[in-house]
Amino acid sequence: MAVAATHVGGGIADHVHPEPQGFIRRYVFSIDHKIIGIQYLITGFIFLVLAGLLAEVIRTQLMNANGGFVSNNTYNEVYSIHGSAMVWLVVIPLMTGAFGNFVMPLQIGARDVAFPWLNMVSFWMFPVAGLMLFSSFLMGAPVAGWTEYPPMSLQGEAGTSMWCAAIFLVGISSTLTGMNFMVTILKMRAPGMTLTRMPLFVWAQLATAPLSMVATTALAGALAALFMERQFGVPFFDPTKGGSPLLWQHMFWFYSHPAVYIMILPAFGMISEILPTFARKPIFGYKMIAFSSVTIALAGFMVWAHHMFTSGLAPFMQLPFMLLTFVIAVPTGVKIFSWITTLWGGKIHFTSAMLFAIGFVVLFALGGITGIFLASVPTDLHLHGTYFVVAHFHYVLVGGSLMGIFAGFYYWFPKMSGRMLSETLGKWHFWLFVAGFNGTFLPMHWLGFEGMPRRVAVYDPQFQFWNRVESVSSYVMTFAILLFFVNILVSLRRGKKAGPNPWKARTLEWQIPSPPHYYNFKHVPTVYGLPYDFSEPLPYRGLDDELNDAPAPVPAGAH
Amino acid sequence: MIEKQSSVKGLGPGFWPFTALLSLLAAANIYFWAVTPISRWMPTAVTVATQIDALFRVFLAVGIALFIFILGYAVFFSIVFRARKEDPPDALGVQIHDNHKLELWWTVLPTIAVILISWASVRVWFPIQIASAATPAGLVVESIGHQWFYTFRYPGINGEVTGNMHLPVGQAVTLNVSSEDVIHSFWVPAMRLKQDMVPGLVNIMRFTTDRVGRYRIICTEFCGVNHAIMNKQYLVIQPKAQFDAWYHQWQVKNATASNALPQVSSAPIDLSDGSAAAGQVLFTQKCSACHAIGPFTQRIVGPGLKGVLHDPSHPNLLSGKPATPANVADILQHGLQGSYGQMPTQVQNALTDKDIANLVAYLNSLK
User: Fold this and answer.
1) Domain contains A265
2) Considering the domain boundaries, does residue A546 fall inside one?
3) Considering CB atoms only, which of A239, A287, A345 is closest to B6?
4) CB contact under 8 A, A281 and B93
5) pLDDT of residue A459
6) What CATH number is given to the structural domain containing A281?
């Protein structure tokens, strides 16, 4: 009962747990959302390095039309693990696990997520799943790409079953995080923070959470079925035993199309925080941006079969999937126009975070435009399965998501570490990355159009020139990422002290010390308005003690 | 605090001249795609390719024009509205939140654009995918994907044609594609068409050839270790006389091919040298749409066939005769009409005598 009594005052959001002592409970099996966020960040970056090295194996192989750097079979293993790792071990965990965990509870004025223990469990599944995925190299890794279409994946070596298990596990982690964030955002906002006063990053996480919860379960079903078919011969997909190869494609894309939005919506949110802060003006069209995130998330569930236009759908089935996919262009366009208009009339400070944010808008827009070519059935009949598709999704996932991750990292690193990153290295990182990125992926558009299929270890010599341009550019891109990691390591030791609010930003996380205390807020603040009115006083009350020596809040009884 | 805010006259310095420049570039791009056929870079081999190219040109014209504006304004606003050294450190931008008129416009205009591209897409999609099904089939050819090559079946040629696929020019063609192992894809870039070859499924491509030439056939679905070199065969479109010569050559060459298209005869089939392995392959092409390899009760259309010749609880076939190889062959040869539905005859299912021997050997091997 004593426990219940402590809950009365400020409600669930004002509940403080005692800070754990000892290294293990603080930094390894932590239940603090900030530590878990940073654990996700470090683990995700380690997998980014590994999967990035695999990408360089791919590009080095493709330097020559006859390959020759690795065997064809190794090449197939390498791009399959590259894709799987980038999607499930890098982009999704960084977008939700890392930035969602660190930033979102701070932005809504909460002391932690709704289920801190569940959060810890979610995190620890992730490195385990990552090790399982990479261990598949030891037993013959999957070769049929990140999509693993049967019956091809039924022929794969033992590592394909390990792939199923690894992705299943990381999928559960993602589902649990989605549930956790959903409850946190709906139930734990500070008093006064109505839905329409939430920062746009929180809106983006709110739109993402149901995608993680619902779509990932379809993937889990598909993976379980593939695993059972491979290990126990239960015929789901093998047509010689009465299974259907297309069943996998439907189940896989019912997850993987919404997953595209799991990988991009949080970046939309980050960009919507960064642009106003460095343009020193309110985000343009707050409600439209928030509403379009939700629209995109909902529509994202109804377009999965546009990945299957050449698979053998009944022809009339193609029509609704094509038209619904076109519809997504409207909310996406609204966002892009709103971001560009946010720049208009600003006082723009070109920090590294801002450069990456502006770069995101432009490169993501190009990825969106090429999406139209693939959404339309007649043009997709030509482009499906070619390098044009590879170009399209790398513009969305690297030019979009990864640029968003970099933007978010430059923006929130001072809050996480209390130190500033080097802006000089940051700008080198940006310009080299953008140059290398476009050199790597822009030529893929015409290579695919002219007849280069994806997932090939060797190719027709007529494509060699542009492939060499791409490979050399990819080394530039990798060098830029190396500078990024050098920047982090140097800045962690020698970076300038950041202070609580180096960017003069207005969301709640910037009104408390960097890094924040274990309990986040000494008193849970009350919120009176949107955080984007730069000419007005801050719309919060109850933050007076955050930056002085006032005592920490008293923990509730242990339980 | 108001004095720290910047104020902008109209839409800002240089906005209209810059917009004019972007419009000029966009117009030049649209003009370029209006007058430049894609066949300048890539030949077209069939009539629908030109229609698909027209759609490509619409998307390229509109898409690149749109990108010119997005990139242009992002860069232009970044330069014009950058913070300058002489600004006070806490200078602010213009404090506007939204503009309902503007937002209405950029919701309505993309909606109209979406309706237009939908209309343009459906206009090309409908004849290729829907209306073509109602036109005469023309020459019906079958292509089967294998790890890692294509084979073809032509009416009047026994067995399978290997190597290049030949078609006469100006010919309406129905191409049925399937696979005997994993998913492949049949893509001819010069046709701008592709269909996946899915085992257990027949996908249909319809087109009319209209330009003589050799066009590469490329697999675009990953199909195993040699997927990358499954691009060595060509679609050869040639004048009717040359095609006829090629066709005749294959007729002669395959005259005695073992899996020739059969006539149903009443003579019992020689089952002596059936190959179970070949039968297994055939089963996926010819039988698995209706029969599972599972117990009798695992019904798709017909019963499951696992152990059909060795199942003590079902000593008789559905024809009422005892489960012997000869009686199974009899059903494959003459079909069966029963409570389960219609089993096709040897001719309807395009099975040779040898095919039947192989299938019976395969079924006999399932215990």
Assistant:
1) yes
2) no
3) A345
4) yes
5) 95
6) 1.20.210.10
Helices in B126-269 by DSSP H: which ranges? 240-253
Which residues of chain B from 90 to 109 reach within 8 Å of chain A, CB to CB?
90-99, 102-103, 106-107
Residues 280-309 of B with CB under 8 A from A: 280, 283-284, 288, 291-294, 298, 300, 304
CB within 8 Å: A345 and B228 = no
Tokens of residue B220, six digits? 């675009």
Phi first, then psi: what are they for B146, rounded to 5°?
-130, 160
Q: Region of A191 please: left (phi>0), alpha (psi -120 to 50) or beta.
A: beta
Q: Could you write out the three-class secondary structure of B249-283?
A: HHHHHCCCCCCCCCCCCCCCCCCCCCCHHHHHHHH
Residue A6 · residue A559 · CB < 8 Å: no
Mean pLDDT of A348-375: 96
* Average confidence (pLDDT) over A301-323: 93
CA distances to A19, A245, B70, B289 from B176, rounded to whole Å, are 68, 18, 44, 15
**What pLDDT does residue A4 have?**
39
Torsion angle of the four alpha carbons A18, A22, A26, A29, in this order, in degrees rounded to the nearest 10: -110
Q: How far is A29 from chain B (nearest CA, A)?
A: 42
Structure tokens at B14: 């240089």
Q: Which amino acid is at A189?
A: R
In B, minimum Cα distance to A152 occurs at B182
pLDDT at site B300:
67
pTM here is 0.85
A29 Cβ contact list (under 8 Å, min separation 6): A120, A124
Q: Is A262 part of a structural domain of the chain?
A: yes
- Tell whether B111 lies on the interface with A, counting CB pairs under 8 A: yes
Name the domain count of chain A: 1
Write down all domains in chain B, each with its CATH number in brackets. 2-96 (no CATH), 137-253 (2.60.40.420), 276-365 (1.10.760.10)
- Find the angle CA(A112)-CA(A117)-CA(A120) to the nearest 5 degrees: 90
**Distance from the B253 Cα atom to the nearest Cα atom in chain A, whole angstroms:** 31
Q: For the segment A222-252, what is each residue's pLDDT rounded down to a tens digit?
A: 999 999 999 999 999 998 888 999 999 999 9
Which one, of A348, A349, A353, lies nearest residue A430 by Cα? A353
Chain-chain contact of B74 with A73 (C-beta, under 8 angstroms): no
Q: Are A369 and B97 an interchain contact pair (Cβ–Cβ within 8 Å)?
A: no
Nearest CB neighbour to A239, from listed B107, B125, B199 = B199
Distance, in Å, from the CA atom of A98 to the CA atom of A401, rounded to the nearest integer, reads 13
The answer, for B192 touching chain A at a CB cutoff of 8 Å, is yes
Under an 8 A CB cutoff, do B110 and A330 touch? Answer: yes
Q: A271 lies in a domain? A: yes
Q: Which domain holds residue A366?
A: 21-237+249-541
Show the tokens assigned to A423.
């802006």
- Give B110's contacts in chain A (Cβ within 8 Å): 329-330, 333-334
Report the pLDDT value the prediction gives residue A553, as an integer from 0 to 100.
81
Q: Which of A39, A173, A202 is nearest to A106 (CA)?
A: A202
Beta-bridge partners for B165: B235
Positions of chain B with pLDDT under 70: 1-4, 258-265, 289, 300-301, 338-342, 347-348, 350
Contact A458, A67 (CB under 8 A): yes
